[in-house]
From TrEMBL:
Name of the molecule in the record: ABC transporter ATP-binding protein
Record carries keyword Translocase: yes
Lineage of the organism: Bacteria, Pseudomonadati, Pseudomonadota, Alphaproteobacteria, Hyphomicrobiales
Annotated SUPFAM superfamilies: MOP-like (SSF50331), P-loop containing nucleoside triphosphate hydrolases (SSF52540)
Family designation: Belongs to the ABC transporter superfamily.
Membrane topology of the entry: Peripheral membrane protein
An annotated GO cellular component: ATP-binding cassette (ABC) transporter complex, substrate-binding subunit-containing
Gene source species: Bradyrhizobium niftali
Domain of life where this protein originates: Bacteria
Subcellular location, record wording: Cell inner membrane
Function field: Involved in beta-(1-->2)glucan export. Transmembrane domains (TMD) form a pore in the inner membrane and the ATP-binding domain (NBD) is responsible for energy generation.
Ranges that cross the membrane: none
Length: 363
């Protein structure tokens, strides 16, 4: 397995930069996901690593080898990069058996038959499909086909595995199950993996690190927990889940232990305390992100060290494990995830609170 390094990599189509000066290092054995809205440049980035698309500037390396360098003109073709690929469009071939599907990359490489048999059965064993080798591909479930596609990508021991929305053809339940299974296989084999999805929950569940992209640029790179909790800007904050984003003005700023800062902020009809990554000058405006699951409907007088609003319950939706509550406040609405059977009714006047550490300000 190898690491993957992108240095100032861009891909222009005419004047339009689909990918704009991306720097990224994927360590050996790491699972990194490119996440972002449709058209943000995820697939183009993956295709450049795959060698299916040529970068118009910058450099891409796999392990110790520079595989594409726009300045010097080096370009190693895709078939010589030793990459395993599972693309959405890379469905397994219906006219072949499972064995023939998985053997295909080895046949193309003209490996001897005995070796092909060995490698195919090992690869099928890895995805727990060893009993299926003579099955015609159409006689498999969606999840089994997915496993065969992964086995085919693994069969020639690739340096790096590239996956573009590999679970998108599956229904929601199978998607979860296959995601978990795939992550387990990836961990066991220690495969360096670059994965593309626009599904934030898939990205969070699978990845060691997530790269959030927008308009061809990287917005933030980090562990899923950090990106969810401490987004770098409003775009990233809004992209994960369904957070409340409130405009506020900063009154005071103080350093906290561990590098973060504490802000005293004032909004329309509310005020309180939140945290931020770096110092903000008094008078500046910020966006305060508060997640619905961190808000509590509370009796008066609690949680002074945080934010609080007075409001009225406008709407509730029963969701099974929780109840979504919309609270009307002076300058808008707050989405709150409350216990399903908390006894709240439309029209109730309530105070809602969030502790300081769960209210995050971005510029
Ligand atoms: P999706 O999730 O919809 O697949 P994406 O994030 O993978 O989106 P890309 O497929 O990388 O996005 O496309 C990024 C941008 O580059 C888009 O605006 C797209 O229209 C543009 N683009 C991609 N390929 C070409 C091409 N061959 N010629 C011109 N523009 C292109």
């Amino acid at each position: 397995m190898s690491n993957v390094v992108l240095e100032k990599v861009s891909r222009k189509f005419g004047e339009f930069a689909a990918v704009n000066e991306i720097d990224l290092r994927v360590a050996e054995g790491e699972f990194v996901t490119l996440l972002g809205p449709s058209g943000c440049g995820k697939t183009t980035t993956l295709r450049m690593v795959a060698g299916l698309e040529q970068n118009t500037s910058g450099r891409i390396s796999l392990g110790n080898e520079v595989v594409s360098d726009a300045a010097s003109g080096v370009f190693v073709p895709s078939e010589r990069r030793r990459l395993g690929m599972v693309f959405q469009s890379y469905a397994i071939w219906p006219h072949m058996t499972v064995f023939e599907n998985v053997a295909y990359p080895l046949r193309v490489r003209r490996r001897p038959l005995a070796e092909i048999r060995d490698l195919v059965s090992r690869s099928l064993r890895l995805v727990e499909m060893e009993g299926f080798s003579e099955r015609p591909a159409p006689a498999l479930s969606g999840g089994q086909q997915q496993r065969v596609a992964i086995a085919r990508a693994l069969v020639f021991e690739p340096k790096v595995l590239l996956l573009d929305e590999p679970l998108s053809n599956l229904d929601a339940k199978l998607r979860l199950q296959m995601g978990d299974e795939f992550r387990a296989i990836q961990r066991r084999l220690g495969m360096t993996t670059l994965y593309v999805t626009h599904d934030q929950s898939e990205a969070m569940a699978l990845s060691d690190r997530v790269v959030v992209m927008d308009w061809g640029r990287i917005q933030q790179v980090g562990a899923p927990e950090d990106i969810y909790r401490y987004p770098a800007n409003r775009t990233v904050a809004g992209f994960f889940g369904n957070p409340n984003l409130l405009d506020a003005s900063v009154e005071a700023c103080a350093r906290l232990e561990g590098g973060r800062v504490q802000l005293d902020v004032v909004g329309h009809g509310w005020q309180g305390r939140c945290e931020a990554a770096t110092e903000v000058q008094p008078g500046q405006t910020v966006t305060v992100m508060v997640r619905p699951e961190d808000i509590r409907i509370a009796p008066a007088g609690t949680d002074k060290d945080g934010l609080r609003w007075s409001g009225r319950i406008a709407h509730t939706i029963f969701r099974g494990p929780t109840r979504s509550i919309v609270v009307e406040i002076e300058d808008g609405r707050l989405n709150v995830d409350a216990p399903a059977f908390g006894g709240y009714s439309v029209g109730d006047n309530v105070t809602v609170v969030v502790p300081r550490h769960a209210a995050w300000a971005v510029g």
